[in-house]
Amino acid sequence: MKAVLGGKGANLAEMTNLGVPVPPGFTIAADQCVSYLEHGGITEALRTEVQHALVRLESASGKRFGDAGNPLLVSVRSGAAVSMPGMMETILNLGLNDVTVEGLAAASGNPRFAYDSYRRFLQMYADVVLGVSIHRFEQLLSTKRLTNGVSTDAELSADALRSLVHEYQQLVRSVTGADFPMDPQVQLWGAIEAVWKSWTLKKAIDYRKVNGIPHTLGTGVNIVSMVFGNMGDDSGTGVAFTRDPSTGEHRFYGEFLVNAQGEDVVAGIRTPLHIDEMAQRLPGAYEQLLDTQARLERHFRDMQDIEFTVERGTLYLLQTRTGKRTTAAALQIALDMVTEGLISQREAVLRLQPNQLDQLLHRVIATTSQSTPIAVGLPASPGAASGIVVFDPDVAERRHQQGEQVILVREETTPEDFHGIVAARAVLTARGGMTSHAAVVARGMGKCAIVGCTAVEILPDQRSMRIGDAVIAEGDWLTLDGGTGRVFAGDLPTQPSEVMRVINGQQAESDAPTYQGFAKLMGWADSHRRLRVRANADTPRDARMARNFGAEGIGLCRTEHMFFEGDRITAMREMIVARDEGGRRRALEKLLPMQRADFEGIFQAMDGYPVTIRLLDPPLHEFLPHGGEESSLLAASLHLSRQELSRIVSSLRETNPMLGHRGCRLGIVYPEITEMQARAIFEAAVRAYRRGIDVHPEIMVPLISDVTEFRHQRAIIERAADQVMGVMGERVPYLIGTMIELPRAALTADEIAAEADFFSFGTNDLTQTTFGLSRDDAGRFLPQYVERGIYPDDPFQVLDTKGVGKLVRWAVRDGREAKPGLKVGICGEHGGEPRSVAFCHSVGLDYVSCSPYRVPVARLAAAHASL
Ligand code: ADP
Ligand code: MG
Ligand code: MG
User: Fold this and answer.
1) How far apart (Å, rounded) are the C-alpha atoms in residues 645 and 637?
2) How many helices (H) and strands (E) in the chain?
3) Maximum alpha-carbon separation in the chain
4) What is the role of the protein in this entry (predicted)?
């Protein structure tokens, strides 16, 4: 019932049903939050329902809300359908006032504990509900420690805490002009409203944006009777994972604090103890915890992140949820759970999110680096990153916007730092454990983080820190290795990850365990998908890499990229500025062998797979020098005067080049270009074929708007094929198809399909021309469009299934009606974006093609789409 109750509420209920010890409580459904935020007020019906639930809670707990003798205290906790750790509010110890605190002291026989709970409640409630800054309370608290000559809160006596409570109450009065509410009912509704309102806190909104969580869900409110981890040394609180969230290793992993309340661990205020130490400190509860965590994992059939409290030796579970984990851990856990018989291979494939795979490709610090770390902290989230140190989230955001790489260093992070974490390449904290805010958030974003690095001492001016003897100021360089927790001074070189090293042939598969796990899971994914996955690759090197990533062919080879290498650009420029066909042919003759060699290398790398080669596409002026020395050199080598050259260059200038003389329009005006390219392709194909390579060239005509353009180009290509194969005495199979990247081509797909062997949707241009939106200029305003919800996503990143998608659907339908079995693929940027891949699957495309690095993402997304 997560959608109704929120994840926390649903799982608390589930645990209760399982017989796991959970303090009694009830949940207000998330739709109440939505209607509160819309209409403002609280309905009578809800008030009545909550009163009934409270009465039941009283009888379940044997205590009464507001009772002077044995008061029921509750926590009021947020919890949405999708977990948003620490982003919304929670208030503990609610129900305490000047009367009930005495009752709690008497009932527990522990006045110190009662007043500690009361002062916690006062500061939390005043901060969250009454808007009195928490720092004002912390100042009073630290003054109290000073005047009592103690260094920790735990050493403050009952009397000291009692007087602190008075000071807190005075502070509230002076700031708000009113007394702190003593009526538990008033407190309760104040807290409920505050939890609802916390749905719209900036940090919560930011978190939803980054994680793609809808703003319309609202949060549930959980009212749970309090259990106390701050009752003494036989009490405590902790957070744990049923498996290691960094590596996935199958071992119970967690942290806890003796004599503390939950918030202390989560907020990273004290660095907690390792869970293994709990076996000594609280042996009975530890045994029970071990048993319970295993049960929870078996029940939910996934790694759990649990929160627990021990009150005088008795264990209570306060939360369980699916644990966030690194991609390496996700892989390991999925594979192990299949071996353990807990989940099927199919589920294992679904457990990995396609976009997560990116993390496995992250760089790590080069093994050749001789540097010794200046400090070691907890490896909270992997990846290697270097950047300049900043100590403030606003500074992080500003300097990031100025194009700098920053590392955010904090004592500990709080949800208020979220925008700074987003801006930073990596996060380093002095305190807090693997379950602290910084760790959880960075892991969720696949960002490098090291936490609990106790050697870091942030100096009071907040613009520098000390690590050992070294002082590091804002703006100094630091390098972090989030996989090992090591911190280095300076900007160290990094190297490819294990998976990348295997892909690049720098490391043997046999000693690469993460790669092996990756390969195994991807193999399962492949067995479930229908869509084929190809890569966009322009060079033999990229083609080999794509193949190692699992590409089943090339969906887009852009021939023009080849022309920029070395002195090829000179021959290309010669061709462009040639005065007549003869001059052009002479220049093209020079280009032909270069193209042929590239194609041959690509055919070899893609032995057995199709290779789609696009004819020259960009406007010619892109190849020309933009004045200066380069122009003089070119003029000299072409035996032209500077004036003549600049006249030719300016005659090629276009007002709107993206809609100008480009694509097939080049090959129609200069057929010799198409002819040369086709010859290079067929000569390469025959040569490769003679060497025993299984070649499948597919020649693709770009930017057509009418079948006549295609017909014209096809004739030239076929003539070249016959000529080359006739002379060389060897025939290889080939296809001639076209890109569908203009709306008119999509709308006349039936006519085109009658003559083309395949379609490939060029969704970059198709998006550009369907929206009438220049991709090169959209950066100025498109972000605001997405920000304001005018467009749900950037249509250049996520395929617009409504508009552009409709053209794709129509063209596939009409094309296949005209030619049953027409081969159809996509080669835009969208081919590596999971939601767009799902769309391609649903409209029946044969394949997607994307950059080599995105191939694993597309393979997994295609499997998810089939499952
Ligand atoms: P978050 O969603 O930010 O984790 P929670 O609602 O889980 O917030 O509360 C934070 C912490 O407060 C929990 O880790 C838990 O230890 C503590 N807590 C919440 N409710 C109770 C309760 N009824 N008794 C004792 N501790 C509680
Ligand atoms: Mg929690
Ligand atoms: Mg295009």
Assistant:
1) 11
2) 34, 32
3) 105
4) Catalyzes the reversible phosphorylation of pyruvate and phosphate.
pTM for this structure?
0.83
Residue type, 658: M
For the record, the structure tokens of 107 come out as: 């009932």
pLDDT at 84: 84
Residue type, 384: A
* β-sheet bridge partners, residue 451: 378
Cα of 765 vs centre of ligand 3, distance in Å, is 5
CB-based contact 653:663 (threshold 8 Å):
no
Report CA(764)–ligand 3 centroid distance (Å).
6
Which residue has a Cα nearest atom 6 of ligand 1? 77
For 261, the 3-state DSSP assignment is coil
Ligand 1 test: best mutation among 266, 305, 306, most atoms within 8 Å of CB? 266
pLDDT at 209: 76
Please check if 254 is assigned to a binding site: no
Task: Give the number of whichever ligand sits closest to the CA of residue 128.
Answer: 1
* pLDDT value, residue 413: 84
Decide if 860 contacts 838 (C-beta within 8 A): no
- With residue 192 as reference, give the H or E element that holds it: helix 184-197
Check: CB of residue 352 under 8 Å from CB of residue 298: no
The C-alpha atoms of residue 429 and residue 158 are separated, in whole angstroms, by 33
The answer, yes or no, to whether any atom of ligand 1 lies below 6 A from the CB of 494, is no
**27: its two tokens:** 């949940």
- Per DSSP, the three-state class of 40 is coil
Q: What share of the chain is helix, strand, coil (3-state, %, to 5)?
A: 50, 15, 30
At 503 the three-state DSSP class reads: helix
Which DSSP state fits 605? H
Contact 859, 526 (CB under 8 A): yes
Rounded to an integer, what distance in angstroms lies between the CA atom of residue 82 and that of residue 428?
A: 27
Task: List active site positions.
Answer: 437, 827
356: DSSP letter: G
Phi-psi region of 367 (alpha: psi -120 to 50; beta: other; left: phi over 0): alpha
Q: Order of strands, edge to edge, in the sheet holding 25-28?
A: 25-28, 219-225, 74-80, 90-94
- Indicate if ligand 1 lies below 6 Å from the C-beta of 262: yes
Whole-number pLDDT of residue 363:
80
How far is Cα 671 from Cα 673, in angstroms, rounded to an integer?
5
Tokens 């492949």 correspond to: 526
Q: What is the pLDDT of residue 269?
A: 56
Q: Could you give the 3-state DSSP secondary structure of residue 387? A: strand
What's residue 444's pLDDT?
66
Give the CATH fold of the 529-619+654-866 domain.
Answer: TIM Barrel (3.20.20)
Closest C-alpha to ligand 1, atom 8: 90
Question: What is the rounded CA–CA span in Å between residue 324 and residue 317?
Answer: 19
Give the span between the Cα atoms of 724 and 683, in whole angstroms: 6
pLDDT at 191: 97
pLDDT at 29: 97
H or E stretch at 154: none
Task: Tell which CATH architecture fits domain 362-495.
Answer: 3-Layer(bba) Sandwich (3.50)
Closest CA to 254 of 264, 272, 241: 241
Q: Which residues surround ligand 2, an ion (CB under 5 A)?
A: 307, 319
pLDDT at residue number 265? 61
Break the chain into its structural domains and give their ranges: 2-227, 228-325, 362-495, 529-619+654-866, 626-653
In our burial notation (b when 16+ CB lie closer than 10 A, e otherwise), range 717-746 reads beebbeebbeebeeebebebbbbbbbbebb
| ipTM over the 0.90 cut-off | yes
Backbone angles phi, psi at 413, to 5 degrees: -100, 155
CATH class of 2-227: alpha beta
- Positions of the chain with pLDDT lower than 50, given as ranges: 268
Place of tokens 């454990």: 433
Pocket lining: 90 vs ligand 1, CB cutoff 6 Å: yes
Please state the separation of Cα 806 from the chain's center in Å: 28
| Protein residue closest via CA to atom 14 of ligand 1 | 262
Tokens of 419: 């925008």
